[in-house]
Amino acid sequence: xxxxxxxxxxxxxxxxxxxxxxxxxxxxxxxxxxxxxxxxxxxxxxxxxxxxxxxxxxxxxxxxxxxxxxxxxxxxxxxxxxxxxxxxxxxxxxxxxxxxxxxxxxxxxxxxxxxxxxxxxxxxxxxxxxxxxxxxxxxxxxxxxxxxxxxxxxxxxxxxxxxxxxxxxxxxxxxxxxxxxxxxxxxxxxxxxxxxxxxxxxxxxxxxxxxxxxxxxxxxxxxxxxxxxxxxxxxx
Length: 236
Prior knowledge:
This protein is mainly alpha-helical. Helices cover 76% and strands 0% of the residues.
C-alpha cells in the first residue's frame, strides 16, 4: 500500500470525527421541529435545550480525550506543564458548562414568557440569554480550544502527516469552520467575531512555529476558514 494512503494519526482522526458528529447533531437539534416539544408535561424546557446540554457534555469529554491523547502520544512529553494546562482546561470546562446552563434555560424562558413583553423580569432574562451567557460561552469555549493548542505545542508529535491525514484534518476542520460561519454570519454576533479572529491568529502563529503538528493545522483551517467564510457571507 502506498504511504500516502496510510494513516499515522488514526486515534486523533476518530476523536475529531466524533467532534464533527457532535457539531452536526447540534445543528440538527437546533433546526429540527421535533426538538421543540416540551420534555415534560409541566413544560420543563424543550428537547432542544436539554439536548444542547447533553451535547455540550459530549464536547467537553471529547476535548479532554484529545488533550489526553496528545499528551500520551508525544515521545518526549513535558510533564511540568501538565498541571497548568489541566487547571486551564477545568476553568474552561466550568465556564462552558455555566454558559450552557444559563443560556439554555433563559433562552427557553425568554421565548416562552417574554417574547411579547419587556417587563423588568424579562429584561433580566433577556440579558442572561443574549449577553451574559454569551460572554461565558466565549470565555469557556476559547479556553478549551486554546488548551488543546497549547497541549499540542508542549507535547509535539513526531509522527509524519501523510496526505490522507491532512485530508481528514481539513475535512473535520471544515465542519467546525461551517459552525463558526453559521454563528457569526447568521446570529447576533456581539464580541464573537473578535474572539474568533483572535483565536484564528493564535492558531496561525502557532502553526507557523510548528507546521507539522496536526491539531495546529486543524485549528488554523477551522478558525481561519470560519472567519473568511463569515466575511464573505456578510459582504454578499
